[in-house]
Design goal:
globular; alpha+beta; binds adenosine monophosphate; binds zinc ion
Length: 143
C-alpha cells in the first residue's frame, strides 16, 4: 500500500467507491468521472505503477478479472461493445500512478473513437525499420 495513492486507499476501504468485483488480488469499481455508463476500473490490490511493474502472477489475475468482467459490464448497461485499455505511464496519459485497466462501454453512434485515436500522428516507417523493430521485440521476448 502506498499512503498517498488514491487507489490504494480505495483498496483499503479508506475512500468510498462503487465496488463491482473483488477477489484476493483484484478490485474493480466504477470510474468516478465516467466516459460512459458502466465505465469500470480494474486494479491490482498491490500497488504497482505501470504494467511493467506488475509481476507475472499479478498480470494473470488482472487479465482474468478484465476478461470475466468485460462482458458483464457490457450487459449491465446494454452496451454494443467496449474499449478495454490501459493508460500505461504518464506519457500515455496515466494520471493515477496505480496501474488500472479501463472497461469503457461503447454504444452504436456514441460519437466516440477507436483506440487508434489515442496516439499522435502515424509515423512513416520503412519496411526495413518495421523488420528491425519486429526483430528487436522478438529477440527481447526470447531472452
Ligand atoms: P488514468 O488517466 O488512466 O490514470 O485514469 C484515472 C481514472 O481514475 C480517471 O478516469 C478518473 O476519473 C478515475 N478516478 C480518479 N479518482 C477516482 C476515485 N476516487 N474513484 C473512482 N475513480 C477515480
Ligand atoms: Zn496504489
Amino acid at each position: 500500500m502506498s499512503e498517498d495513492c488514491i487507489f490504494c486507499r480505495i483498496v483499503d476501504g479508506e475512500i468510498p467507491a462503487r465496488v463491482v468485483y473483488e477477489d484476493a488480488d483484484v478490485l474493480a469499481f466504477l470510474d468516478a468521472n465516467p466516459l460512459a455508463p458502466g465505465h469500470t476500473l480494474v486494479v491490482p490490490k498491490a500497488h504497482h505503477e505501470t504494467l511493467r511493474d506488475v509481476p507475472p502472477a499479478g498480470g494473470e489475475s488482472l487479465f482474468a478479472a478484465l476478461h470475466s468482467l468485460t462482458p458483464v459490464v457490457e450487459d449491465a448497461v446494454d452496451a454494443d461493445a467496449s474499449n478495454v485499455a490501459f493508460n500505461n505511464g504518464e506519457a500515455a496519459g496515466q494520471e493515477v500512478p496505480h496501474v488500472h485497466g479501463h472497461i469503457i462501454p461503447r454504444f452504436d453512434g456514441d460519437g466516440g473513437r477507436p483506440v487508434h485515436a489515442v496516439a499522435g500522428d502515424r509515423p512513416e516507417l520503412s519496411e526495413d525499420e518495421l523488420d528491425a523493430i519486429a526483430d528487436d521485440i522478438a529477440d527481447a521476448v526470447d531472452e
